[in-house]
TrEMBL record:
Pfam families: HI0933_like, HI0933_like_1st. Residues 6-387 form the RsdA/BaiN/AoA(So)-like Rossmann fold-like domain. It comes from the Bacteria. Keywords: FAD, Flavoprotein. This is HI0933 family protein.
Length: 389
């Protein structure tokens, strides 16, 4: 098949757009193929429409994946400030929020506009509304099947993301294409997703309550805002925990992080109070009532035995439950798992199995914590692929 483009990029999302503008700036003819009507649909919903596009501090520890070091090389070559510089060049206002998160001040649409206009200025072609169903190799390069039509190029980038949040066109096509070229797929699971608790959970029915809490699972702990939902927990603490939680694992909550409850019971401010009164001043009342062991709430704090003080501390600071699952891909901001990074070059993102085939973004087994890390990985890996291809 004759080629009227050098490179086909599957997916005009965050990573595909960054890869396209980088390769086109090096003089390559680039075509982006996407089944959406418009590019960057996931960018538009990111950060509640304000797009948490990066973080002031980004490093391999902010990511999960089987090979934790895979992202190091690409991250080292694309700093958060390069993304800031790109947006500033186009007059996009941004702001820093807590935990180093950088957001657009106006709208996520600003980011999409910068990337798409840069691509267009550099001559990239957009083939929108084209559903990719597969890809294969022939003597001249790669053939892409798009529901009845075919496209061809000598090099191919798979930047079709993960199946998380299918409402904006997310799919597993990238994993299927990778598998067809002999790549192994690390099992895919929803992350940055609310967790569902068992029927009859001691803290069920507290929906609407939010507070700062500690949360631990899989050997990792976070202290962030937690929100009780109808079916379990959400908010930054729960979403972060979901990156490290696997079915069957317990989750431990610390509802008074850093507070020494046995010492509190003896403190001059609290020793004469009923345990119930003491804790409802420190925690939302409905939550405190559920947490306090039945036989302790009506007793004076100073009168508790050492064992009872410890029992109270455990109830409040080590509440343990095994979630029944997550709210699934429809409510997940990302997916962990994906193309096995042991079979891809961490410097160029090129397949180690099929020369000319590249992967970038969330299709790979790299998932970031909450805080702008997933988009940063999309930019950094797209840049690495675009520089090498
Ligand atoms: C609700 C929500 C909020 C988020 N907020 C943030 C945030 O604030 N900060 C952050 O860092 N990350 C955030 N993320 C995650 C972030 O958006 C993704 O990690 C990032 O977009 C991944 O980039 P990507 O290029 O790999 O994939 P995508 O941006 O998903 O792009 C993949 C593209 O492939 C196309 N595609 C898929 N299947 C096919 C097919 N069969 N044929 C043709 N085209 C196809 C899709 O239409 C899409 O345009 C959020 C995600 C969601 C869902």
């Amino acid at each position: 098949m004759t080629h009227n483009t050098d490179i086909i990029i599957l997916g005009a999302g965050a990573s595909g757009l960054m890869c396209a503008m980088t390769a086109a700036a090096r003089g390559q003819r680039v075509t982006l193929v996407d089944h959406g009507g418009k590019p960057g649909r996931k960018i538009l919903v990111a950060g509640g429409g304000k797009c948490n596009f990066t973080n002031t501090e980004v490093g391999p520890d902010d990511y999960v994946g089987r090979n934790a070091d895979f992202c190091r090389s690409a991250l080292a070559r694309f700093s958060p400030w390069e993304m800031v510089a790109l947006l500033e060049e186009h007059g996009v206002p941004w702001e820093e929020r807590d935990h180093g998160q950088l957001f657009c001040r106006r709208s996520a649409a600003d980011v999409v506009e910068v990337l798409t206009s840069r691509c267009r200025d550099l001559g990239c072609r957009f083939e929108m509304g084209r559903m990719v169903t597969g890809a294969r190799r022939d003597a001249d390069g790669f053939i892409i099947d798009c529901e009845g039509t075919r496209l061809a190029a000598s090099r191919l980038v798979v930047a079709t993301g993960s199946p998380a949040w299918p409402q904006v066109g997310a799919s597993d096509i990238g994993h299927r294409i990778a598998r067809s070229f002999g790549h192994r797929i690390e099992p895919v699971r929803p992350v940055l997703v609310p967790l569902v608790m068992p029927e009859g959970w001691q803290l069920g029915g507290l929906q609407g309550i939010s507070l700062e809490a500690g949360i631990s699972t899989g050997g990792v702990s976070f202290v962030r805002d937690l929100l009780f939902t109808h079916r379990g927990v959400s908010g930054p603490a729960a979403l972060l925990a979901s990156c490290h939680w696997l079915p069957g694992m317990p989750l431990q909550f610390d509802f008074l992080p850093g507070v020494d409850i046995p010492a509190l019971c003896e403190s001059p401010d609290h020793r004469r109070q009923l345990v119930r009164t003491m804790l409802t001043r420190l925690l939302p009342e409905r939550l405190a009532t559920r947490l306090i062991p039945d036989d302790l709430g009506g007793r004076k704090a100073a009168e508790l035995s050492r064992a009872d003080r410890q029992r109270l501390a455990d109830a409040v600071r080590s509440h343990t439950v095994v979630p029944t699952g997550t709210e699934g891909m429809r409510k997940a901001e990302a997916a962990a798992g994906g193309v096995d990074t042991g079979e891809v070059s961490s410097r160029t993102m090129e397949s180690l199995k099929m020369p000319g085939l590249f992967f970038s973004g969330e299709v790979l087994d790299v998932a970031g914590h909450l805080g702008g890390y997933n988009l940063h990985w999309a930019w950094a890996s797209g840049r690495a692929a675009g520089e090498a291809i």
